[in-house]
Amino acid sequence: MESSLRKSARPFKGWSAKSLRRHHDEASKLLSTVKECMDYEDSQQVREIMCDEAYKGLVEYIAWDLLPILGPHLSDKETNEEMYQNCVQIIIRLAELGNPKEMFIGLLEQLDRFLDSLVHNDLLGPLQTVIRRLGLAKPLYYNQLLTTLYAHMELLKVPSVNGMGAMERRLISQDPDYSKVETTSLVLLEFLVPLVQDVEEALVTNVPSQNPSPKNIKDIEATRTEIMKFVLNILEHPLIAIEFKYQDDADEEEEMKELGINAEARQQVVPRQEEYSLSKKSAEQCMLYLELMGCSFSYLLLYASQRSANPDAIKEQLKKKKKKKKKHEDDGKKEETLPVLGLSCFAYMLLVEGYQTNRMPSIFSTVYMMEVVMPYVEAMLRRPEEPIILKGLELLRSVVDRLDEQSLNSNLLDTKQNFLQVTECMVQIMVYCPSKTIRRIAVSVLSPYMDRFDWKGRYHILRSLFISTTHPGAKGMLIGKLKDYVHSTLQSDSHNDWFVGVRSHKLWVMIFKLDKGERTDLLNSADKEIAVLNFLRYLLLRDSGGQDLTGIWPWLGILQQVYLNPLQSCLSGSRTHYTLKVESTWKEIRRAEMKKENLTGILTVGGQQFPMMPLPEQVKVLETAVYTFDLIGSIVSRVNEIIKTYKHLLPVEGDTSPRSLLADVHGAGDVDMDI
Amino acid sequence: MAGESDVTRPWTDEEIASDDIGKKAIATFLQEHAAKRFLRDHKMLGALKHVVKTCNKEQFVKAYKELFEKKAFKGPHDDEEELEEVTKKTAEVKVKPKVKEEKVAEVPHFHKKILKHGDRTTYPKKGDYASVWYIGKLTDNTVFDTNTASGKKKKDNTPLKFKVGTGQVIRGWDEGVQTMTLHEKAELTIQPDWAYGKKGKPDAKIPSNATLIFEVELVGID
User: What is the per-residue pLDDT across A397-455, written as a single tens digit (0 to 9) for each?
Assistant: First the structure.
């Protein structure tokens, strides 16, 4: 066996590939001998011959046919380490010597055969060699290569961290799926290093040895675009969906308390790690590549705002993501579209992490920057993944912070739809996002965001949010915001009539009402009703000077009819109902105690048994409900008192208001509700 | 008091017709030396920049020649006439608009110094795309941003292109570039309220309330 391969190879010693052409049949025979060798697991011999300088020509000639013989053995790592190592070595040799075009196609074929990422990594080195041999002026090859590589990346899913606590999030790096994603992106970025350098030398630093011709420059630029797209794709998946910064320790502490873990035990479970995840480094790497290759940062940042003349374009692209197969078919036609979420991650790195900001011209107005960033913010806030939402909120906050109050014109709400849609997204996040931290951030960004608009803009945002928001807590927060705007209107002499008088009636109609009239579930909507009543109390007291500053007094008749009276009857109904319920539960407890029964019943949800709340707990819940009604009731009576006092005082001594009532003005907003 | 005889012709007819003399220079000369009435008849009375904007060069040249023909120079009676008019006007018009004008004059938001004249005819209009090379400096001469090849940072070395008059760029640029003509190079000194204001731009090392100095060259209008 041994001798046969050497024997059949010997005649080709020192031959060039060209001269071998005339001896095609003999070379084919040699191939079958090689195959036999491999079948008998004698790879050492094959390697010795293939790596022998004397057989250079032979290797060049048979490389194309050799590849499919060797390729399958790359997956032998576990079973036959020696065989595997030899194959890796030979393939590297083939990549160096074989016809680059042939090798390129051959290697890509091999790549497609293996979905296993380990094998995939072994092929990267040879591929890198081949593509560099092909040169930079071959954008189509780059396109094919990078598309194939990215297809592998796309198959890997980023494990979701939604709803996880800070500690669990740290632990996720130990999830095998997660580390696979992370290492694959690192490996792919590593793969790009020499390619990026080549581009840099050809286009940016203009190394004289490269000295490309004008036609070549165009091709190299196209190659750069391919690499740029690939980098943006990596930013889109997986990087944007991975947390860059682990959450605050404060949250972790809370979580530990909840789980009953002390600091020592914690240290054992999750060793202290870096503050930032590996993926942040990857993202920085991406930014560095874009910079080195001389990609225009302003082009990338302005991309979405300039393309999406119709706001549906982004949505369409997001939809398309779901239908990935379809997207691949379209790829040929839509060559130029860049991934929106990848660009969003780019914008995040640029503006929030402050990475390479010096590459952005410092002449754009802050308002324009906001317009530019909004498509990205919207795309991010519409995603379900918490790390993406968080990045979106931070991006939004970074641009909001750069603006002064009232610097956004309300026209923006009409011309750029995403300015309004983003507010709805934020309310949705405030209500539905499982992460408390993110809900809090959404609340803390929405408020200054609204403040950046002029009075008219603030008015329109509130109006549209009152229409779209149903969650009582969120509504309560918005009503608080309305109160603030009325207050600052009255305090300043800005002469805006958006939050007083006729215009504000339109807002009042939306909040001074019970969703289901007298049958409203007051317990559920308590947050909203308390906020509304506080607002009303504020209005009545602030406007008690008889000057009719707000228009609330003339409106009082309607208010009584549409809100206060129904509320009153709803309140007394609910209170009676719950008081009775408390009594009956007490009775049940007593009965159960007498019979020494277990104090829990049986609760089934969808056929599944759930433990029922113990009766004493039930009583507690019911009693809390009654307290809530008492609280609402007390504010209602306070409001009625004020109405009585001032209705009587108004026409005659409107200017002199009793001190006790004035003091109330300041306390009017004190009952704040957490969402 | 400037007597008529004191006024000499600064330019010959040939000189004035040539491209070397800009209309602004003629307008300045006319406003300095011509009688108010003469200026009003030619609709050249008022703030210099407006006059320059509303009249074309031909009109200025014509007025210039007429001025010497009619010798309608500023005279001792000029101020009296003006006084008369002013009193008449104040009787009719309220003071308000005048106060406003003064305010604008007190705090100019930006100041332009021309370093190299442009073609003096092609101004970028609102909505046009202007391409510019620029160097942005703080008052202490530190460069915070530039796109020129000689700058420290290597950018793509393409001129920056933006839509004029639409708020894409800081206000000082938006207004400043509109006063420039094609191929003009100018130094724009922009007050903070028309630049990055109170908040500054920390990531570009622009401190709060910074006056910015831009050397801008307008190289293209599309």
Answer: 999 999 999 999 999 999 998 999 999 999 999 999 998 889 999 999 999 999 999 99
- Does domain B110-221 fall into CATH 3.40.50.720? no
* Of the partner residues B160, B197, B206, the one whose CB lies closest to the CB of residue A361: B160
Averaged pLDDT for residues A622-633? 93
The string of pLDDT tens digits covering residues B121-134 is 999 999 999 999 99
Q: Closest Cα of chain A to B32: distance in Å? A: 37
Residue identified by tokens 């003349």 is A309
- Test A362 with B155 for CB contact under 8 angstroms: no
Per the CB < 8 Å rule, is A363 touching B145?
yes
* pTM of structure: 0.79
Out of B16, B135, B170, B206, pick the active-site residue.
B170
CB within 8 Å: A362 and B168: no
Whether B170 sits among the annotated catalytic residues: the reply is yes
DSSP SS3 for A2:
helix
Q: What is the spatial distance between Cα A344 and Cα A154, in angstroms, rounded to a whole number?
A: 18
**Domain B4-93 -> CATH class:** mainly alpha
Beta bridge partners of A245: A276
pLDDT at residue A311 in the model: 46
List beta partners, residue B160.
B132
Q: Is the dihedral of CA A483, A487, A490, A493 positive or negative?
A: negative
Q: State whether ipTM is beyond 0.85.
A: no
3-state secondary structure labels for all residues of B92-135? HCCCHHHHHHHHHHHCCCEEEEEEECCCCCCCCCCCCEEEEEEE
Instruction: Give domain limits for chain B.
Output: 4-93, 110-221
Find which of B138, B153, B155 to mutate to test the A interface (most A CBs within 10 Å of its CB). B155
Tokens of A145: 């290569």
